[in-house]
# Entry
Amino acid sequence: MGQLYILIALAIGLLLPLQVGINAELAERLSNPIAASFFSFVVGTIGLMICWLVSRDPWPDLNTVA
# Structure
C-alpha cells in the first residue's frame, strides 16, 4: 500500500509544471493575475469539496478544528 502512495505522490509531482502553465495561460487570457489566482483557488476548493463529499467523511467537530 505504501508503494501506491509513493506512485500517487510522484504522479502529482509530475503534474505540477502543468499547473504552472495553466495558471500562466489563465493569467494572460484574463489579463489579471489576481483574478486568475482567485479562479484557480475556487476551482481547487470545489474539487476538494467534491472529494470530501464522495469520501463521506463526517463533518469535523468544531472543538477539534479550533
